[in-house]
Structures are given as structure tokens and as C-alpha cells.
Amino acid sequence: MPLNQSITVIKTAFFSSMSETLERYHRCSYGELKAGQSSKDSQYSYQEYMKLKAKVEVLQESQRHILGEDLGQLNITNLEQLERQLDSSVRQIRSRREQSLLEINRSLKLKLEENSVAHQAHWHTGEQNIQFRHQSVQSEEFFQPLQCNNAVQNRYNQAPSDNIESSTQYATGILPGWMFDGGS
């Protein structure tokens, strides 16, 4: 995963935590005191407000560091800590992405296997239909075998006849009788 995408995911996780903190901060800082609220409760709310305000400032500073801003003021120890934090976040992101891809691969593999079984069943059904058609075509004798009639050869060798009707009696289905009589 490219570094830009990793930083985007880190920012998203960071911002969701930050938004929760800001929401609590706004409730404490801008919320009105309820009518029955005691000064002890208001002091507690003020302390919580100060804690949340400090936490927001730390989170905003951390956000700037993660985004690569204001790094000049960090010492080597802080930079190494930031690097470890980024490395850890990138490892978590890669692990989640790998798990997601494995799950997607499993589901796609199952779909392929299901489709393969369906296609094989369809293919075998098609082969049976093809064999049936092939056998049925072979059983029907589409072409009738031709039988030679020696009468054609005999008629050809005989003397020409004036009677066309008698010459056609010797003709078979191969050649019409007039072809033999008319030429001689």
C-alpha cells in the first residue's frame, strides 16, 4: 500500500478519535449549566473541559506530525517514536488489507467452483444431447445407396430405337433415358 494511502487511513482513524474528543469538549465548554446542577458538578465539568482541551491540543499536534508538518521542533527520540507509530500503523493496515483480500479470494474461489460445477453439469448434459443427435442422424439413412443397373450399359450398346418410351424403361434414376436415345 502506498504511503499516501497509509497516511489517509491513519488520518481517518485519528480523526474519528479526535471527533469524539471534540464532541465531549464542546459539550463541556459550550453546554449550559442545568438548573439543578451544583457548583461541585460545574467544577468537575470545568476540570473535564481542561483535560479535554489539553487532549485536543495534543491530538492536533500529533496530527500535524503525522502529516509531516512541524517536524523541525521534534528531537531524534520524538522522530523515532513517530516513525515507529507510522510503521505500526502501516503494518496494521497491511494486515487488514491482506485479510480482506484473502476473504475476497476465498469468496471468488467458491464462486468459481460453483460455476465450474454448474458448467460441467451443463457440459455433460450437452454431450449427451450431442451423442443422441449424432446417433439419431446415423440411424436415419439420409442418402439411399445407388445401385447400378446393367440395363443402362446394355441399352447404350444396343442399336438405336425409334421408340422413346421403350428406351426410358431401361433407364435408371441415374441418367434419363432420352440422353441415351437422342445422341445415337
From TrEMBL:
GO-annotated molecular function: DNA-binding transcription factor activity
Protein's name in the database: K-box domain-containing protein
Family annotation (InterPro entries): MADS-box/MEF2_TF (IPR050142), TF_Kbox (IPR002487)
Residues annotated as signal peptide: none
PROSITE patterns per UniProt: K_BOX
Gene Ontology CC annotations of this record: nucleus
K-box domain ranges (all copies): 42-129
